[in-house]
């Protein structure tokens, strides 16, 4: 009997579905106003000539209920590749079945196959259910670092500081 949950690599035909799930995740995180991604941007950066991310879909009995977005990074200290989990999302109706753990296990196996010494991800410090989930996966909360984000006017202002 086939497993009710499967994971497959997304393709360009899945772009609208991925965009919908990104919006669902943003709504769940109360950040729907932060979503500005467009179809062309997703197509270019995930399925284009030089992709910088990859997406996998989680299917429960053939229905898309989750997605996983990954990116490769490099550790200058260790000299190893790092797999970065940008997004792991399970739709509300499919939560509680262990699918998030299966997606993270899938990502860990990709990291292993690619020779990554580390797998990283981040989570909002307010997201207690996610923190508990990642703690149960034996994820270690990074100490001694504060993650920053620079965008919009701040990014443009800093860019003007470049030597000409």
Task: Offer a few descriptive terms.
164 residues, alpha+beta, Aminopeptidase, 5-stranded mixed beta sheet, 23% strand
Please give a structural write-up.
This protein has five helices and five strands. The chain has 164 residues and is α+β, with helices and mostly antiparallel strands. It has one domain (5-159): Aminopeptidase. It has a five-stranded mixed sheet, sandwiched between helices.
How are the SSEs ordered, and which strands pair?
Layout: E1 5-9, H1 15-28, H2 39-47, E2 54-60, E3 63-74, E4 81-90, H3 99-113, E5 118-121, H4 128-136, H5 152-159
Parallel strand pairs: 4-5
Antiparallel strand pairs: 1-2, 2-3, 3-4
